[in-house]
Design a protein that fits this description.
The complex is a heterodimer of chains A (191) and B (168). With 191 residues, chain A is mostly helical. Chain A is built from eight helices and no strands. Chain B contains five helices and no strands.
Chain lengths: 191, 168
Amino acid sequence: MHDMTLSQLEQLGDEVAVSEATFQMDEDAFRLFYERTARPVWAYLSRMSGDAKLAEDLLQETYYRFLRANVSHESDAHRRNYLFRIATNLVRDMRRRPRMAESPLADGVGHQEPADPQSADAADGAVRRLDLARSMARLKPRERDLLWLAYAQGSSHKEIAETLGLKAASIKLLLFRARRRLAGLLREGGR
Amino acid sequence: MIAECVREADVLEAVALGRWPDRCGELAAHVASCEVCSDLVEVARALHDDRAWLCREAQPPSAGMVWWRATIRARAEAARTAAQPISVLQGIAGACLVGAAAGLATVAWRSIHWMDRIGELAVNLESRRADIASASALATGHGLPILIAVAAGLVLAPLALYFTLADD
């Protein structure tokens, strides 16, 4: 057997590192995919984490894990669902951390309101978003995930089941209960 | 129990396409009288509008930045992974050296006791010079090589450790 010095071994390790650093998806394909998905993923992370700054970190982590997974996807929709699945798992991990115990959603609501403050529509929209944030904060995390994926993201029951790791048959009932609860809270003005 | 309505899909579509409520005269009349669809409109509209607003206002980092960070991190992780076996080998080599040094020390300690017994034997057999001579020969024949081996081990072990752990 050919003897190798420690430095040669380390050099070999560096070469392996460089070759392993490439992802299955090339940069151009990633850019296209990112441009299509970054904003919805950011919106999801922002609402589920309740923190716009944290959402940015989670966004980076989501795409990193997506690239590292090197999974081949049969369609763009499948790829997008996979991305949301990663994002959901990240938010779950974050919720388990003690610091997220407090105010899950209210923080993200009031950040930057660039619209004209004199506009009645803008003010009305801000109030509705605040109500929604307060109401969502009173739901269970899984209910929030379900509702967002179903009604904000427009995912099918099957896609929601895949994203959240639930049985497809149970989605209908869970969604119905969550929807009824949120509707009640919204009518009360989120209080 | 789940309450369902056959118009749910229509309501969802109207909200998703931004037609609700202005262009939904008949559907709006239905929603006003249907509890299920009323809940659906309340929730779907709020979430749909919220998502639209968030997507408008979102300022995610550029694709290039995300790609660049991911590449840097992937390389760092790959380098760490590649270095792991080397670290393990270094650890094993270090542990072997420590074990060998401990073994040598034990042998040396035992040989000292053994030489003490030779000394005692020599005292007891003082009157018999011939026996003393044979005992001395025994001590010289076995104790000295052991002492040399211990000394060599103590000198060589740090050197071996240095060459194992050195980068180049």
